[in-house]
Amino acid sequence: MADAFCRALNDWLKKEWLDKDARLRGSIVIPVQSVEKSVAEIERCAQDKRFVQVLMLVMGDMPLASATTGRSMPRTTGSADRHPRRQQLSQPADLVGWGSYHIEDYVAQAQAFQTQLTSLIVEGVFAPIRP
């Protein structure tokens, strides 16, 4: 279902915004629940040069997908939002448990950005490519 929603959203963005104003650029939305489908959607949308990046939440539950399309993969503030009062999941989004206020979730995003950056560094994303 996420794959269908992402495909429809990307097609809608292209038709309703990018096709109507040559100055606009778009972000590819991907179904992070499936790495294979995420890569396929990136490759499908990357054929249109007006899509300049892949947009992802910084606090997701799934591994990050990537493809060799030359697009950046920025993270945006946001999470999978699994608050126990809304959904019956027992795992809090941060180490101190579920917050009572939106500001607590919002501030926790800073740690998520740091974790993402650390992961990119230790996995060698910024290392020079050697032949």
What this model shows, in words?
The chain is α/β, with parallel strands linked by helices. Helix content is 36%, strand content 14%. The chain has helices at 2-16, 35-45, 102-122; strands at residues 26-29, 51-59, 75-79. It has a three-stranded parallel sheet with strand order 1-2-3. Helix 1 (2-16) runs parallel beside helix 2 (35-45). The chain starts with a helix and ends in a 9-residue tail after the last helix.
Short note summarizing the structure:
This protein has helices at 2-16, 35-45, 102-122, and strands at residues 26-29, 51-59, 75-79. By secondary structure, it is of the alpha/beta class.
Low-confidence stretches: none
Order of helix and strand elements from N to C terminus: HEHEEH
Order of strands across the widest beta sheet?
1-2-3
Distance between the termini: 41 Å
Helix content: 25-40%
State the shape.
Answer: globular
Strand fraction: 5-15%
- The count of strands amounts to 3
